[in-house]
Design a protein that fits this description.
Helices cover 12% and strands 11% of the residues. The protein is built from 4 helices and 13 strands.
């Protein structure tokens, strides 16, 4: 009898441990595994079997507050709350410590909870188009963060310890009031995409030119009047977007950007291009419209990878344009108009929003 009681007790404890283990030690899926999981569209459906819920999409539901029971979804790894009316997030929200992707874009959020650092598995955080004026210092402890979008807010400064986010690969700061970068920003050596347009920047901090893994850099719609010679250090760039500044020239060192495929310097005050630009043999798209160019560099026809050239509203002689059209027969050369919404295609895909 004693043995039977012992066996029953052991089984009971094992079952108790199993239940506890299931909720306290949920399975973290890889992004590939996560892609295969179904997406739940309502909190009611999700709560029927919370252990099976890895992805929840509550976007565009006019939510003004989070459902209280959302914290029961202990396996939740992807949460889409975009396009609602959320003004704040409760502290309990950060108990969803297994989240990898969190989309809070297009809400009315004015403050991020300080305990956001509990979301230790977070890789993608989208705060596009909210009402934020600052980020909490604790956000710098999200050691696995790879993509951060804070576009279209009212932020004027990044946290001092921002460089601790050294796994960041894509950073979107567009349309804020951020005119400087924090110390040691150059420690973000994994950064490949950086959008810093529309922030009234007057000069480019030297730290930026140490991010040698950058592939896409957008500094458009600022107040830049010069591009430093140090641009040559960003030799992995394949896209450089500088439109709508007050630039009058480019440095000859731009010739070091041999991987560059797309260059946009439209809507500036450029009077002359450096001769060295003809050495950028991988260029396939150049936007030069709305400048003060009277001619193109000798040897411009060497750019035989060029597929699209827009030079509308300059002072280039028609004869030069006709000769260029013959030499670059593979290239679509537009010198009569500017296509509508031409700059919308410059944005990095992961930050495009409706």
């Amino acid at each position: 009898m004693k043995n039977i009681l012992y066996l029953f007790g052991a089984i009971f404890c094992l079952n108790l441990y199993s239940c506890s283990d299931k909720s306290n030690n949920p399975v973290i899926l890889s992004m590939e595994e996560l892609d295969k999981q179904p997406i739940f569209k309502s909190i009611d459906d999700a709560l029927k079997a919370p252990e099976n819920v890895y992805k929840l999409d509550l976007s565009n539901n006019s939510l003004s507050a989070l459902p209280e029971d959302i914290s029961k979804l202990f396996n939740l790894q992807l949460l889409n709350l975009s396009g609602n009316n959320l003004a704040n997030l409760p502290d309990e929200f950060c108990n969803l410590s297994n989240l990898q992707t969190l989309d809070l874009s297009n809400n009315k959020i004015s403050k991020i909870p300080q305990n956001i650092n509990q979301l230790t598995n977070l890789q993608q955080l989208d705060l596009f188009n909210n009402k934020l004026t600052k980020l909490p210092d604790e956000i710098c402890n999200l050691n696995n963060l790879r993509v951060l979008n804070i576009e279209k807010n009212n932020i004027n400064k990044l946290p001092d310890d921002f460089s601790k986010l050294n796994k960041l690969e894509s950073l979107f700061l567009s349309d804020n009031k951020i005119t400087t970068l924090p110390d040691n920003f150059n420690n973000l050596l994994n950064l490949q995409t950086f959008e810093w347009d529309g922030n009234n920047i007057k000069s480019i901090p030297s730290e930026l030119f140490k991010l040698t893994n950058l592939k896409s850099l957008n500094l458009s719609n600022n107040k830049l009047n010069t591009i430093p010679d140090a641009i040559k250090n960003l030799f992995n760039l394949n896209q450089l977007i500088l439109n709508d500044n007050i630039l009058s020239n480019l440095p000859p060192s731009i010739s070091n950007l041999t991987n560059l495929q797309m260059l946009d310097i439209s809507n500036n005050k450029i009077t002359e291009l450096p001769d060295e630009i003809v050495n950028l043999s991988n260029l396939n798209t150049i936007f030069l419209f709305n400048n003060n160019l009277s001619h193109l560099p000798v040897g411009f026809e060497k750019l035989n990878s060029l597929q699209q050239l827009i030079i509308t509203n300059n002072k280039i002689d028609n004869a030069e344009i006709e000769n260029l059209k013959k030499a670059l027969s593979q290239c679509n050369i537009n010198y009569t108009n500017v296509p509508e919404n031409i700059h919308s295609c410059n944005r990095a895909p992961s930050c495009k929003k409706e």
